Amino acid sequence: MELVVLVDEKxxxxxxxxxxxxHSDHTPLHRGFSLFLFNNNQELLLTRxxxxxKTFPGVWTNTVCGHPAPGEDVVDAAxxxxxxxxxxxxKTIKVISxxxxxxxxxxxxxxxxxxPILVGHANKDPNPxxxxxxxxxxxxxxxxxxxxxxxxxxxxxxxIEEAAILQQKDPGLR
Length: 174
Description:
alpha+beta, Nucleoside Triphosphate Pyrophosphohydrolase, 4-stranded mixed beta sheet, 4 helices, 12 strands
């Protein structure tokens, strides 16, 4: 059983809950992470969430998101999920910015996370697990930013907000 770490507004651990029970119409605040993976051409690896995902099914988003296990470092959690979901390994992942968000999908399921934004690099194509990812593509960063503005409903709300933060924090991506 996969556990998520429940936290207060200051990211102090207040307990754990089973992942399959935590996301509902009143999801408690918990720890997550959100990884943006780039290749040497400054293309972002985008993934489309599987239609069977409990939250935000079928939307495009950044490379991989997930939850650190109790006692697990967020970078280690990102490396674990990257391997599990997409069959990719990377040596270095950087924490770029803290981030907290809350949003509700079309089915009334709420996301409510303290979710640091991470960046990594790889030059291999993924081999995704269909239960997690239904499609993927590499997209140039500037094209991605334009595409999000034209079609925001196609992307997860956290991806849109995090991309804006990344654009401000890391001018090399512009």
